[in-house]
Specification:
By secondary structure, the protein is α+β, with helices and mostly antiparallel strands. Helices cover 25% and strands 32% of the residues. It has 3 helices and 13 strands. The strands form 3 sheets. Strands 1-6-9-4-3-2 form a 6-stranded mixed sheet, with no helix packed on it.
């Protein structure tokens, strides 16, 4: 019976990952004509691990649906999420990983950036093996980092949001809080229905074992 439970868990995880991989869409909007976001960001001061002396702040904003003219012009009808990492130490920021962004075939994500003085974002951040989107995480690679960083914009069709941990990689890893979309109830329901056949199959297998 334990084997059936293990198989069910592995099958469910594989099915979910396959669905996300098959449906995930991340549109590279490149440099965008945004203005610097206003309002107080969700800002966390952090110090990374002992292998690095990096210190700084990780800022995350969310712009209401319909309030971002650039998002609207690009065809996105939901919230816009904005991120910026500001180092105050001597380390080089390698990448940031932004969690909670699951695109589907009917709800693509768009990513763009507003260039800062250092212009650290790599032009190949979406085409390289280390960049792009995987399992709901958008990873952005940097060429170098000094001073104020670029603003990263993620455009969505989502209408609600919450907080979760992101990641800043600079030789070691820091995990500041950031804003992210909260899935709509219909999305959660669709995921549950997708897993229903697996539950039925497991139930039948357990019944057969008991009869035997």
């Amino acid at each position: 019976m334990k084997n059936h439970g293990t198989k069910l868990a592995l099958s469910a995880a594989g099915m979910v990952l396959a669905a996300v991989s098959a449906n995930a869409q991340l549109v590279n909007e490149g440099a965008v004509s945004e203005t610097t976001p206003s309002g107080t960001p969700l800002s966390v001061t952090y110090v990374s691990g002992a292998s690095s002396t990096f210190t700084g702040t990780f800022n995350s904003w969310v712009i209401a649906a319909g309030s971002d003219s650039v998002a609207t012009s690009l065809g996105y009808t939901g919230l816009t999420f904005v991120f910026q990492v500001n180092p105050t130490g001597p380390s080089v920021v390698e990448s940031i990983s932004l969690n909670g962004f699951v695109a589907t075939s009917t709800s693509a994500l768009g990513i763009g950036y507003l260039s800062g003085s250092a212009n650290p974002i790599s032009e190949s951040y979406l085409s390289s093996a280390q960049g792009g989107i995987s399992g709901g995480t958008v990873k952005v690679n940097f060429n170098a980092f000094s001073g104020t960083g670029d603003y990263v914009y993620i455009y969505t069709n989502d209408k609600s949001y919450g907080e979760l941990f992101d990641s800043v990689q600079d030789g070691s890893s820091a995990t500041p809080l950031g804003y992210a979309p909260i899935p709509e109830p219909t999305t959660v329901l669709a995921g549950a229905l997708m897993l229903l056949p697996l539950g039925v199959g497991a139930f039948r297998a357990i019944r057969k074992d008991r009869i035997a």
